[in-house]
Amino acid sequence: MTDELPQPMVSAEWLEEHLHEPGLSILDASWYLPAQGRDAEEEYEAGHIPGAVFFDQDLVVEPGSDLPHTLPSPRHFAQHVGSMGVAVHDRIVVYDGPGFFTAPRVWWMLRTMGAKNVAVLSGGADGWKAEGRPVTKEPTKVAPCLFETDFDENAVVSLDEMKAVAGSGDAVIVDARPAGRFTGEEPEPREGMKSGHIPGSRNVPTTSLSKDGALKDEAALASLFEDAGVQKDRPVITSCGSGVTAAALLLALEQAGYENVRLYDGSWSEWGSRPETDVETGPARAGG
């Protein structure tokens, strides 16, 4: 048995081989938009990977926030994750339904809170089930533990910092939302949101990062980001609708060799709801 997980993705073969080893925590981090017509918790209860615990992305948030997925404080995060039986030094595998959609958000949260040995399951639960791998309806027995956080404040970009950066060229802002929402041609799924994007942003939709639930290889990702105008020699900030799929962008950027990448946690739910924020519509500006 090796102590280190393959990074940043693990295969279904690897996970099945190591399923019952001590020190391995598995988290089902599935979450869906209403338009997708899927219920993450219901699917978990109908059949999940043995040993997996459901990570509710609508619950593990900062209490009292007016935003849907605000990163909780280290104390609140530790309470939630510790109650799931996850320790900071565990080998932690995170998965979602499609394979590369919302699992990276929990991967990012865990890393931001101090976990080092975290990976995402390639192919997700959909791929796992399609291949006939084991699933169970049995509730996972959990032994609550202490999750000792080591919070990386620099990983999280605030609204004030985004106001200073937007349109300045000091960093490349990359938006994971679909193209229609980025340009403002399609409405936002949440009421009260402006349409468009943060000034100077580039658009790399989450759906372009993977194929059949598996992250594309380093060369393909590098080409994708370069074509979108995301330069490796500049700081990069990722954004999306509510901070969830921005983490998928961040993981893909790191895999493509980008080193200075951070996440705007408020994302469009924050920027698009504030009366004082500037908005652009249409395609990304060349050189923006």
TrEMBL record:
The keyword Repeat applies. Residues 20-137, 167-280 form the Rhodanese domain. GO terms for molecular function: 3-mercaptopyruvate sulfurtransferase activity; thiosulfate-cyanide sulfurtransferase activity. Keywords: Cytoplasm, Pyruvate, Repeat, Transferase. It is found in: Cytoplasm. Residues 181-210, 269-288 are annotated as: Disordered. GO terms for cellular component: cytoplasm. Residues 183-194 have a biased composition (Basic and acidic residues). Pfam families: Rhodanese. It catalyses: 2-oxo-3-sulfanylpropanoate + [thioredoxin]-dithiol = [thioredoxin]-disulfide + hydrogen sulfide + pyruvate + H(+). It comes from the Bacteria. This is Sulfurtransferase.
